[in-house]
TrEMBL record:
NCBIfam families: YbhB/YbcL family Raf kinase inhibitor-like protein. The lineage of its organism: Bacteria, Pseudomonadati, Bacteroidota, Cytophagia, Cytophagales. Gene3D superfamilies: PEBP-like. InterPro entries: PEBP (IPR008914), PEBP-like_sf (IPR036610), YbhB_YbcL/LppC-like (IPR005247). This is Kinase inhibitor.
Amino acid sequence: MINLADELLNDQASARSFTLKSNELGGQLAQQHYSNGMEFAGQNQSPQLFWENPPQHTKAFAVTMYDLDAPTGSGLWHWVVFNIPAGVHELKADAGDPTQNLLPQGAVQSKSDLGVPGYVGAAPPKGPAHRYLITVYALSQNLALDQQATPALVGFSMHYVTLAKASLLVYGQK
């Protein structure tokens, strides 16, 4: 018989090996992940992502992309998607385009910092490379939010239900 302490130890071991990967990303964003505008000729396409070894009691996932170096004083949220079902461990390339219907059923894309739901491609100003942190969160429950939720509200709501998280750091430069 497994007791609660054993289950918690198993969850902690699983959380340590929880990983986020991409078949598209290396250390740099690819051209398709940049904005199609603001002097960029990208395709505004969210990257393909997959994750492995989530904690045992995961009920849902969330994925975010955040520019740590945006000249705003508070960074910039490029993508926020949550309530990805626990059985899903991959987002296809361009899943961040709300018109493509590539997200799994039940997943919600809320507003980016540009005020629109879905993925907003990178558009760093001229200068040093920007760091883009892409994170998958294993959640103990779905979030009771919709696509109008701001990134800050989603982050606050995830804070108390995050079991583990895994990240990729990629760079982008004009």
